[in-house]
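Please, structure for the following, as tokens.
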Amino acid sequence: MNRTRTTAVAAVAVALIGALTACGGDSTDTLRVGTLTDSRPNAYQENGQFTGFDNELLRDIAAKEGLKLEFVGVDFSALLGQVAGGQFDIGSAAIAQTDARKQTADFSDPYNYQSLGLETTGAGGVTDENSLAGKRIGVVQGTVSDTWLAANAPAAQAVRFPNDAAVLSALKSSAIAGAVFDQASAEDYAKKNPGLKVTKEITTTIPHGYAVKKGNSELLAKLNDGIKKTVADGSWERVHQRFEPNAPVPADFKAGR
């Protein structure tokens, strides 16, 4: 009798361990994606759903590669450090692949290119980099906008914020004279906020990439393979048309390449 009960208890314990292991496996197979909540049209949250060009393209890549994703909103200034520390498997936030950032994380092949927009309320004479000396100009800390301002308008007073929403709020309240955003974001903010306008577009050849922890070559290979597939079958262009209909499609991302 005791032997039978012991055997039964052991069987239940084995079953429970197996179930827990299975659950743990499912959890491990889900990739945590650090992204933004407020950076339209690249990465933002709407009606409780993370969306935007970068995130919808990543969903398409994941479908092609058999990957499961879980999106989490973070501030851009913390994102790469959290990818490097293993809190996130992927960083998805129109991340420009600068040499400095490559010291922190590895990046996928390019899936877009960086462009910037100088935005203002129209007051204060903010027109281009030559008009910024002595003026308070908002940027998100640690972004290409931040480094561009330092390099091209060193006499400007850079005011650094943790995210786009904080920069936009300061601009609308005239706490700053202008701001530098991603071009697509700047155009979206101007469209939705009467009184704001983009006074200069700044095009660069810096590629965007998904960030992964250094040394994660297996995940990087899957992302790169997925990017190639989205370009080849036209998915890249369809997602681009949905979120950036007025932006030209770079030759690298035209269907069939």
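The domain at 10-111+209-253 is CATH 3.40.190.10 (D-Maltodextrin-Binding Protein; domain 2). Helices lie at 2-29, 53-65, 76-84, 144-152, 164-172, 183-192, 217-232, 235-243.
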